[in-house]
């Protein structure tokens, strides 16, 4: 038989409620009396203790190899990886795909949190457990839709191991377990005191700094004292990276695609924050429609542009949007076990996490009279009406209108103004996210004869707050610059001739006005999860081949999600920030049963069935069957079939909605028209034309658009069929190989509208053609009329047929289906080197076969097989080698991601292919026309146990200092599985008292 020591064992009795335990015990009492009273009472206590509970099953067993594939990552494995967080552990699992990372989560709706993502089915398809029980969802759903567990809230210092089930488990755990389960298991007990600290640094970035510290202490011995209590406090701190450090550290192709990034930002040319800048004025020529700019008197940073001169400044250098925010996390964990009597144990567990994420959004901000598209947004109390705001002009009698007579004459004295508002200092604008989450579990477990039972009550919750200081408060803005009036000559809205805000000076009085004009906008969210569960597990009867064991249990849950919304945003007073509003609550109930039966000496069957009842839906039945066959002493065959489901979240099917921007909206018409204009301007010999062309290039191809996404109370649950088939082979004592085919078919997927498809938009509005549009056309006409430009222009110049899209409205819906399958391969070898210690090597790979998606309910697969296309590599793999020698432990890990095309699918490939050498309609670079190259990085760790008290370690992540390639599809300009930090050095020390 295969050895049962392939991973660490544990004695964790299985989960029931006292009430259900008593009922089930009463029903089975005669059987208990016969089998436990008269059979050996002390029989097989050692065997019983050796039974373990493996993730994905409620039944304790003596062999960790089940019909379902389960990967166990020990504490030592985590140390050898050089992983400091659960997120970093998942980076080393081929079955895990990149999910949201807290450092790159700004403006995602769930800022400050990280997600787990198995098989690429998203956080909503991956169930995360702590010691076998659910945690509360993060307070702020991703994209205001996807509720998920923030894996950063799990205490890293007390992790004993992780068990990753790469098979569907809805029959055991219910909703969300379609792609698999990640069960984080903490130490069962701890005695003594331990202090640990870690520091990471990356020489490529002066600002990079990551520190962690933990204190763990416990007392009591279960065998001698009848109790054990231990606790741990974990501290984490990461420094943000400002844009001034990212400025010249993008992949090279980024600068080719953004030629104005270096030139027009002009590092060290414009006035820096804190240095007074008088700004510039502008007006629109009523005849030619051309814009004319003029630097204000006293400007020391004059820049020649296509439309005249401007006084330029630098307000972007402090922004941390690209490099990641400052983050601080405190996680506390308390665990206690108490022996009530020889057959009963009480237990309790408490987890608390406090997260504080801060990012400078680029301080200060500018006053800029609007000549282009207005700011547009939806809000709760204004219904389907799109709110819009245009920054007013300066009137002819304004005390701060110092434009030249020639400029004033163009519009009867009315001029626009560009002015840097520096009064509030360097850290006012930006974003902050706080999240306070907790989980408390208390329960009893024990045994009655050969049957084990457990019952527990858990309460968990999260309170998240997003603070954004970015946009205008209409009333505050008018207080600073109003009251507004209408200029009788031009009909333009103008500010007060003598506004409260005093241009030309930097003062505390001005600062107070700016704080009201650009206030802090907050979004609060609360989630709550109360659960009562119970289970009883033990032998039912004996078959000729052995004992049949079963488990029965129940689960009752109360779930709430509440986001009241900001009052000013709800009334449409915060530009581009309508916020969100949700109010949902529900009770759900489940009962389940499971049995494991040895059909023959070599064949074992596992059956499970779970019934879940959600309000408004019929009872969902999730079955599972698994078979394990010991074909040879060295060969085990296994397979499973199950059905899974995901109920709509309260964000998707509750009351309320999302009133927010959608970024990167692509309007093919405007994109083509603007690029036609920009393309001609970029050919000019005149520098000002080229500057304008570079600035316009792709500017209308990915815009922010007001959107309203409404919940849908008629949603159906997602359903899935999941199967695995594989083997485990151990031909020798030193080699084990496993391979498992996996298959997932998910239908009725719950998705937000795809706003790129007209059929999914219930309403849309457009802006009119703006003065900026007309000014661009005037600049083009001027260039084409000047022979010195050297451009041969067509007889009919390109122009604009319509304005940009202003707003879209849609609703969550059940749409389409996904089919994915592939092969997981895992090979491990163990070598005894004698006096040179022990060497362990391993290769784990996920080989994708199909990834097919249909966005509607029609026949076939419209997008085809997307394996090999962007973000769907055929191969992900990890190689590791660990050498243990005396007091030394060395680990080396290589992570590999296969190459892909730039196109997302065969439809996208019609526009983005090797011939166009583009991805997302942006140039990929001459050496990357065929797609994203394969990518690998290596991590090296060395740990030394100096004595029984002290251990120290060092890790070099990305030991070969590989820098990422340019990724035209990613907003960070490099792929999510790469990083821009280069080589990272880490040192750690642990002292046990």
UniProtKB/TrEMBL annotation:
Residues 1-33 form the signal peptide. InterPro entries: Beta-barrel_TonB, Beta-barrel_TonB_sf, Plug_dom, Plug_dom_sf, TonB-dep_rcpt-like. It is found in: Cell outer membrane. This is TonB-dependent receptor. It holds the Pfam family Plug. Belongs to the TonB-dependent receptor family. GO terms for cellular component: cell outer membrane. Its main location: membrane. Residues 425-959 form the TonB-dependent receptor-like beta-barrel domain. It comes from the Bacteria.
